[in-house]
Design goal:
The protein is built from eleven helices and no strands. It is mainly α and about 180 residues long. The protein has a single domain, classed as Hypothetical protein af1432, CATH 1.10.3210.
Length: about 180
């Protein structure tokens, strides 16, 4: 079943599906899907997706970055929908690796931290360079000190507790894959 019908009219859907430019296809899709969403600071959520995308080093990485929160944050949309609209399986695999289980938000704080640690571990252990780069870019934006200053004190404390230890682990894994890429 095509779940984009909840968000796109038939003309928008067909135009995005037929778009041969993969980056533009993903951008047009998230522009519509996230048009009413805001980030923790109240700014348009699309800004986060754009900033993360700009940090990526490849076209596939940039596309995955634009779409990385789609499954997690947009109701009804699933991986089959992304495939149907023309997103390559290689990009979808990266998105799968970085997508959090939305049920985690209902857990107590300690369990949420433990699950986040497990998620970062699974991304690192996957050895997928694009997934590691994407999660590092995502976390770099979410953990950006300038953005954190705009949050409430309570939210800032939570985000620091969540991201700080995982950021260090992910940065180390990211730097390792970059060294390997330079040797090639």
């Amino acid at each position: 079943m095509n779940h984009f019908m909840f968000y796109l009219n038939a003309t928008e859907y067909q135009a995005i599906k037929d778009n041969p430019d993969l980056y533009d296809k993903a951008y047009q899709l998230v522009r519509i899907l996230f048009r009413e969403k805001t980030d923790k600071e109240g700014f348009p959520y699309l800004g986060h997706l754009e900033r993360v995308s700009r940090q990526m080093s490849t076209l596939e990485g940039k596309v995955a970055a634009l779409l990385h929160d789609t499954i997690e944050d947009i109701a009804y949309i699933d991986y089959d929908d992304l495939l149907d609209i023309g997103i390559p399986t290689t990009v979808i695999e990266v998105i799968k690796l970085v997508t959090n289980d939305p049920k985690v938000d209902s857990l107590n704080l300690e369990l949420r931290l433990e699950r986040y640690h497990q998620k970062i571990t699974s991304i690192i252990e996957s050895g997928n360079p694009l997934a590691i780069e994407l999660k590092y870019a995502d976390m770099s934006d979410n953990y950006n000190p300038e953005r954190l200053q705009l949050c409430s004190v309570e939210n800032r404390v939570w985000l620091t507790r969540k991201y700080e230890p995982q950021y260090k682990r992910l940065k180390k894994a990211y730097e390792k894959i970059k060294k390997v890429e330079k040797r090639k």
